[in-house]
Design a protein that fits this description.
The chain is an alpha+beta fold and about 210 residues long. The protein contains four helices and eleven strands, in the order ββαβββββαααββββ.
């Protein structure tokens, strides 16, 4: 699978100047017809996500010492020398986005821009302390991806309820959102659009107790 990912079918999502330069974000179209038959589309997208991480870390970063461990429903873990590498990937609609950083703990989530979020789910996502006008500033699917990216960054994913984390928006710059976790840690989220996707990246400054 790795050889199917090349410079010709990987695009870097240019968000420099908005998030730290040490965070890299890449997009890849899943070539389902070129992958092994007999697996689900979701399974093939997941394989593509791991292959994209290998391409970034081995090919673009030159970190050939790194070994990626990935299990279903768990955040990918990179075993390597220093500096340590934090990674995350997300897939939907035959597309994969991966984020990599040697400085921050990172998480990413993507969904189609037009994906509908039921009103009852939107209400269940809301933290009691969140701004009342959050839904006026962002669409429900943007809020979903922001929260899932944050939960993926800390390694719990959707095993932890979305309403356990609180989003705070700086009215002067809607591109940047602060997320507060129940244990007192805080991170930053950037939400953007790319092709037909909503893309959210969460990054947390490294601490010894953060799952990377």
């Amino acid at each position: 699978m790795r050889q199917l990912i090349t410079q010709d079918n990987v695009e870097r999502i240019d968000i420099e100047g908005i998030i730290p330069a040490s965070i890299s974000l890449y997009w890849h179209p899943v070539q389902l017809e070129m992958l092994s038959a007999g697996t689900t589309a979701e399974g093939r997208e997941s394989v593509s996500g791991r292959a994209l991480l290998h391409f970034i870390i081995d090919g673009l970063m030159g970190r050939r010492d790194a070994v990626i461990e990935a299990q279903k429903y768990e955040k990918p873990r990179v075993i390597s020398g220093e500096p340590h590498i934090s990674v995350s990937f997300s897939h939907t609609d035959r597309q994969v986005v991966a984020v990599v950083s040697e400085e921050f703990t990172v998480g990413v989530d993507i969904e189609r821009l037009d994906r509908h979020v039921a009103e009852r789910i939107g209400k269940r996502m809301k933290h009691p302390m969140e701004q009342q006008n959050l839904n006026e500033m962002f669409t429900p699917i943007q809020i979903w991806t922001m929260k899932e990216a944050a939960l993926k960054a800390i390694g719990t994913g959707l095993r932890q309820p979305m309403n356990s984390i609180c989003l705070t928006v700086d009215d002067r710059d809607l591109r940047m959102v602060t997320v507060a976790f129940p244990d007192g840690r805080k991170g930053t989220i950037h939400v953007t659009s790319y092709k037909n996707l909503t893309v959210s990246i969460c990054y947390i400054r490294r601490q010894s107790d953060v799952t990377t």
